[in-house]
Write a structure and sequence with these properties.
This protein is mainly alpha-helical. The protein is built from six helices and no strands. The longest helix has 36 residues, at 63-98.
């Protein structure tokens, strides 16, 4: 069972990273894309949650599972909000230091290192949400999730 959970976790992380990279590349290579619009954060959040919702609804959830999904989706949304606030504080701190007459690059490097060191905990939280939801699925639904992950991982090798 541990091997199966490890494989699922690795697959979910891989999919999340790939989706993030694709969104980043698309946004920064297209001048008219959503990245350059005022409401980028709201747009990308909605796009991600809608995409996930479509995939989740394809599993034909029962009422209990749907309630669980709504709870987890709320946690994910709160996580987006928290990350946005932390990122704004991070950028403001860096900006304030850079605007000093003699910016302290050691201090900036320390701030960046501290910020980057928090990323694994955020990813772990998202993986925990995935596993929390996965564990309320029945065997058929879990199999559908695994098949979808195999599909995505298979496509990754064809690049």
């Amino acid at each position: 069972m541990k091997k199966r959970t490890k494989c699922i976790t690795i697959g979910v992380v891989t999919i999340a990273l790939i989706l993030g990279c694709v969104a980043f590349i698309y946004a920064h290579n297209n001048p008219g894309s959503f990245c350059h619009r005022q409401n980028f954060k709201k747009h990308i959040r909605a796009k991600i949650l809608n995409h996930i919702d479509e995939k989740i609804m394809a599993l034909n959830l029962n009422d209990t599972q749907e309630e669980k999904w709504e709870t987890i989706k709320g946690k994910v949304t709160e996580g987006f909000d928290a990350c946005t606030q932390k990122r704004k504080a991070f950028i403001d701190t860096i900006d304030a230091e850079l605007n000093n007459e003699n910016p302290d690059m050691e201090k900036i490097a320390g701030i960046v290192k501290d910020h980057v060191n928090k990323i694994p905990a955020v990813i772990e939280t998202h993986i925990n949400h995935v596993m929390e939801f996965y564990n309320v699925l029945d065997a058929d639904q879990q199999q559908k999730v695994i098949e979808k992950m195999r599909e995505h991982i298979g496509e990754c090798g064809k690049v």
